[in-house]
Each structure stands twice: as structure tokens, then as C-alpha cells.
Amino acid sequence: LNSSHEVEKFSILRIKNEERIECQDQIVKEIALTIFFNDTEIVTILCSPVHLNFLALGFLLNQGFLKTKKEIKNITLEERKGLVWVESSRDVSEIKGVIEKRLITPGCGKGVVFFYHPTDAILSQKNTSSLSLSPATVSSLMKEMQERSFLYRTTGGVHSAALADGKNKNILFFHEDIGRHNAIDKVIGQCFWEEISLADKIVVTTGRISSEILFKMAKQKIPVLISRSAPTNQAIKFAQKLGITLIGFVRAGKMNIYSHSERIS
Amino acid sequence: LNSSHEVEKFSILRIKNEERIECQDQIVKEIALTIFFNDTEIVTILCSPVHLNFLALGFLLNQGFLKTKKEIKNITLEERKGLVWVESSRDVSEIKGVIEKRLITPGCGKGVVFFYHPTDAILSQKNTSSLSLSPATVSSLMKEMQERSFLYRTTGGVHSAALADGKNKNILFFHEDIGRHNAIDKVIGQCFWEEISLADKIVVTTGRISSEILFKMAKQKIPVLISRSAPTNQAIKFAQKLGITLIGFVRAGKMNIYSHSERIS
To answer: Is the pLDDT of residue B85 over 70?
Structure first.
């Protein structure tokens, strides 16, 4: 997809102290994507208009609608209308609980919403990955992601999230989105679709780390999460408990290691 | 509320190039707040543990559950449990549509969700406020908010939103939260509770401006919205259409005016 798909030009007035310049500026595009799961409308998300299939898959996976790629029967995207249908062969009775819980407790419409279940079995398993990395690698992964992020450099209006290999310590792919959750969900969705295990990988992001982001990582068994921004206290507590190395404020050779620093060589 | 209520100390490993320092760091707190409206559970939000009443009121107002302060019968906050009940005398049949729409179309659980109705009558009215301000005022309002934001300076992990007077151009109050939507909702909630009209005020925020944030401003008839960050294309288009002056990237004497620059003197 070319950049015109992701940005739009606007005439703006730019002011620098006493100077006033009428100029063209590149602005990041926003669309509303409505996700359907087996004919049930699940959610509408404001997002960047790229890799919408990955966003839908990542979202449905995080929320418990999907488990494996095999159960996907069809994905239909109507990009112009902002609609995506994911059809699954998963047994309806199994998903019914997920949908009903959502209907009874809508939990809608906010910047951040709470959807993990602290009783999830997967969240009681401590990550014991022996992956290790140096501070120099942490810095260079963050630098590489930001340099490759065309949209961020052009518009300043997106978050990025990248998947990096735990062995070779290189970035495998990355996504950008106006929402920090969406960028992470696109990474998770691509891994799901391409059947890439996250258990021996590193996730790098520009966004702040709340417990909700941390839980998405824990469910995918990611051992190391690196952010340019701040974590919350709950994110640190769960990272400590779940065996995840959480690194924040990665900027110009500096960083804070909040948990499981034994993975930092 | 003192700062210990909003931050928690953690032992971290701080790395600066070759240097490694074990130290204490102040981390921003996160709680989950569940909002009930007349016994119906509406939403659970991850947020900062302060001014939760204002957050609940701002959220319910934005979502169409509330109209005027008179209809509030009671607000009960159980802060430790993260629960708030807002009881309203508003005619149930009037709210039924809002709740049912949410139950049928749950729209849950994401970084950003879409809840405005483009047919809302209020959104067809163009803002004609004669408020005007200078670039120097824009810069100084942003600077003042950031200087006063203790949590931001301490933790780097929050967004701020402030209400400024349109005449005297001073900051009346401001709120901080781990979510950029929450900070804005707290400002709107406080105005609702204290019966302050927003029609002759300025809102200043650190967060990015999506169409959803812009619509919250439009509903409250705010004529000027100032951000430290980027807008999306949809936010600019609706600002143009709805008569709102949208200013972004306000940093060190610089700024971009995206719409209705006639209010900039």
C-alpha cells in the first residue's frame, strides 16, 4: 500500500514564533472498522486504514473468539465501507459464553477497557524463556523501528509495534496505527495468520504499557516487551508475576528495566 | 489527594549507556473503574485513581446517558473496589434506546471505539463563537498545563487535559489520567457537575486528536481545542465543518492551525 492510502494533505497555518506560513501538511488517516464474527457485530474501532485483516484477527484472538488458524473459514474485507467479516467453524456453544458475556456486560466505548479474566489459565503460567539480550540491542531495535516508521516520521500521529526475532535480534515486521492497542493487535494478528510463535520473540512498541497491553503479551507467551513510553504499576506487577521482562523509556542509550532483568546481559 | 495515591514506588534497573543503577522509580497507578447507571453495568475503564466521579459523569454525558445535573439523584463511589453508581431520575424510556443500542451492538474492549451518531442534531450546528486568542497565549496555556502536571513530570505516564477561560486566558482546572480519553472526560464531567458552560472556554490537552475526541468537544460547544500532539484527517474535517479551531503540535513557540484560524489574532 502506498503512502497516499495512509495520509491526506491539508492546507494548514504553521506558526513559528513570529513567522506564519500557509503550507501543506501530511495528516494521518483515520477510518472506522466494524468487525463481524459469524454474522454477529462485535465492535467498531477507529484505526489506520491498513492491514485491517490483521487488526480484526488480533482483536478477535485477544478477546477469545479465535483459537487456531484452522477454524477460520473465510475473511471478507470491504475496505471502503470499513467492514470485515471473520467466519469461523468453531463450535458455537464454545463462543456463546464470550458473546453473551459481552452482551450482558457491554463494556463499551472508552479509551481503555478491561477484558482479561485474572482466572485465565494461561495467565497463571510464568514465562521461563531463556531468551537474553543486551542493552545495546534494546536501543537498536527501538531505533530501527522508529527509522522504518514512515508514517510516524511524516505525521507524528501514530504508534508503532514491531516483532523482533529472539535469536538474530532483527525486526521481522512492524505495524503502525493511530491507536496503540491497534498496532499491537496487528502484530498479534499477523503472527496468528502466518502461524508464527511469539514465545521466542520480542515485541517493541512506542506506546504506554497498561495491564491490558501486558496481558495481551502474556497470552501470547512473549518473554520481552520493550516500550519507548511509561508502564503503569499494574503492568509492572503482572510482568513480575508472569515472568515477562518489561523495559520502558528506551531513548538515546537510556532505558528502565522494570522486571526480570536477568534476561538483560 | 496526595501523590502517594497516584504513584507507587518500584525498584528498577536504570541503564544509561555503560552505567547500571539499581534505583527507586515512581510509577503511575492504574485501577479498573466499573460504572453503573441506575443498576445497569455500563463499562469498565482502566484509569488513574483520582476524580473518579468526574470521570463517570463525563463518560455518561458523552455517551448520552445524562443531560442535566438536575436529573442526578445520587452518586456512590466505592473507590477501593473501583465501583461507581450514578442514579438518575431521567425517564427510563428515554435512556432505554441508549442502553439497548449498546446491548445489541456491544462495541467493546478496544483502544478506541466509535460512539457518536453523525445524525446527532448537536453535531449539525456550526460553532460561531467570537472567542479569539494569540499564538503566545496558545503556547503559554500549554506550558502552564505541563508545568502544573505533577504526575507527568514524575512518571511520564499520563495525559493531561485542562479547561481555560476564553476571556482571561488562564487555566481554571486540569486533570491527568493514564488514558487520554479519561483526562478529557474528567474535564467534561467536572464542568457538568459544577454547571460550567464550555461554550466560551478553551480545552488544552497533551493527547492525539481523533474524530471521537473532536466530537466530545463539539457536543460541549467548545470553540478552541489545543493539543501537543497530532490530529487525524477526520478530526480536521469535522473541526472545519463544525466551526472548531483545532491547533496541534504546540511545542516551544511552534504550532499548527488546522481549522478556523480566524480565531488566531
So the answer is: yes
